[in-house]
Amino acid sequence: MKSQQTNLIFNSYLLRSFGLLRSFGLLRKLSLFRSLSLHPDCNPIRNFSCIGNFKLIRNSSLIRDCNLPVLMLLSVLLASCGTTSPRPGSVLEQGEASWYGPGFHGKQTANGETYDQNELTAAHRTLPFNTRVRVVNMTNGEHVDVRINDRGPYARGRIIDLSKEAADRIDMLDSGIAPVRLILIDSEKPIRTRGPGNIRREEFTIQLGSYNRKEDAEAYARQIRSSRVVSGEVDGSTVYRVYYGRYRSSSDANRDLNRLKRRGHDGFVRQLQN
């Protein structure tokens, strides 16, 4: 009886785990299992192809008959799914860089600073503010270290907008654009390369309120189905914000915001990475 309960628990874990593998496109890696010496009744490829049918998994002899190397390899694959934070020195992206200067000099950046075209800063669509990256010009090998303090660029194919000074350091003022590689130096916040809020795409939400007391935020959130409370820091103090939804585009978020306003709930759309 105890053995059956253990198998049920572990099989339930496998169902959830292989759902993750399928989500990340890693299920094909299970072909590695074919190179291992297995018990005749232990065929992970066959058994996991039936992942949608709990009866087949529950009644299989997978757990009892699989040898240790199979389970060890499974653990490695699952661990790779959860690895989302790149280390300093990791290449974050490759793409096209541009630069901006005279028309924006002295104006406010997305993080509230005053833009100075003579500082080594840059705009990126999703990297956390104050992240420092090394920008390598792939044409000439020149590089410059910049700090992210603004959002952009929004032209198709471009991944970073450099200040005038930063562009000059890698000799791309005249060309205006250049193919570059972004290498992580450091970041004050975790950087996600997979899952919600990752740097590969912008994500938006609707902020409906901000409170000093968690209890007040939760009380308001209970009035709006599917809303959530998220804590944050503002000038060294903790605040509790009420958010609604996750969106791939600001237009989708604004559509739901208008619907919420008609129900008496005011708010605004914000980028999740900000």
Automatic annotation (TrEMBL):
InterPro entries: RlpA (IPR034718), RlpA-like_DPBB (IPR009009), RlpA-like_sf (IPR036908), RplA (IPR012997), SPOR-like_dom (IPR007730), SPOR-like_sf (IPR036680). SUPFAM superfamilies: Barwin-like endoglucanases (SSF50685), Sporulation related repeat (SSF110997). It comes from the Bacteria. The keyword Signal applies. One of its GO terms (molecular function) is peptidoglycan binding. PROSITE patterns: SPOR (PS51724). Its EC number is 4.2.2.-. Keywords: Cell wall biogenesis/degradation, Lyase, Signal. GO terms for biological process: cell wall organization; peptidoglycan metabolic process. Residues 198-274 form the SPOR domain. It is an enzyme of class 4 (lyase). Belongs to the RlpA family. Lytic transglycosylase with a strong preference for naked glycan strands that lack stem peptides. HAMAP family: RlpA. This is Probable endolytic peptidoglycan transglycosylase RlpA. It comes from Natronogracilivirga saccharolytica. The gene is rlpA.
